[in-house]
């Protein structure tokens, strides 16, 4: 049973964390990023996709590279790439119950937009569980895995990092929170499209871990249920 009795602030990434990668939402976002670059920079599809992934690896997000090198408006980019179909995403009653049982504050911390987080969390039936959504705009467009957005998040919400746990699907994105003193949980996925992502930047799969990862789970709801039970026993 994971000992999270010290946790007062529960921080969740959004995509491929609050929902599983098998839901196929991120491949839609990925395809729209390629289309945005293709159309805006007048490139062919293959060239646009290569550039997209190159910027993702070098800058943390494709958008950061486009902002830095092509003066792309971030809000326009976010609005375009998050225009996806989430009709198949169903309410997750188990996750909702698990979140309800957690003591303390709950946050979504995403490299996406507030609007996208609200749409997805709303479809999952868990939006009401969160005290706030900290998105890429709130971070000053500095993306995870950079340290700066984590520091800004903790400072703006007056959070002692030792009282917080971060749930993430990308191993690299847990390095900074670990260094800052947060407990880290890696959420694993299992979907065929993961093979197409850059190795160091793809959502984690079974067997993935690192020294800066405290806990690993392939079932977020079950992990939260166990964690809340452990907290109840400890108290």
TrEMBL record:
InterPro entries: HAD-like_sf, HAD-SF_hydro_IA, HAD_sf, Pyr-5-nucltdase. This is Pyrimidine 5'-nucleotidase. It comes from Hyphococcus flavus.
């Amino acid at each position: 049973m994971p000992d999270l009795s010290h946790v007062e602030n529960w921080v969740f990434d959004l995509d491929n964390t609050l929902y599983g990668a098998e839901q196929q939402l991120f491949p839609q976002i990925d395809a729209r990023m390629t289309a945005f670059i293709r159309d805006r920079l007048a490139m062919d599809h293959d060239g646009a996709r290569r550039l997209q992934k190159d910027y993702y690896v070098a800058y943390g997000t494709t958008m950061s590279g486009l902002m830095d090198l092509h003066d792309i408006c971030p809000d326009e980019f976010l609005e375009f790439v998050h225009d996806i179909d989430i009709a198949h995403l169903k309410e997750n009653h188990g996750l909702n119950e698990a979140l309800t049982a957690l003591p303390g504050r709950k946050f979504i911390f995403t490299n996406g937009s507030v609007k996208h987080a609200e749409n997805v969390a709303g479809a999952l039936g868990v939006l009401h569980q969160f005290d706030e959504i900290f998105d890429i705009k709130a971070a000053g467009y500095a993306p995870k895995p950079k340290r700066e957005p984590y520091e800004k998040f903790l400072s703006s919400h007056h959070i002692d990092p030792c009282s917080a746990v971060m749930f993430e699907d990308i191993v690299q994105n847990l390095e900074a929170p670990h260094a800052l003193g947060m407990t880290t949980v890696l959420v694993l996925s299992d979907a065929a499209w993961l093979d197409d992502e850059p190795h160091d930047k793809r959502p984690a799969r079974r067997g993935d871990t690192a020294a800066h990862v405290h806990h690993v789970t392939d079932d977020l709801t079950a992990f939260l249920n166990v964690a809340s039970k452990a907290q109840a026993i400890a108290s």
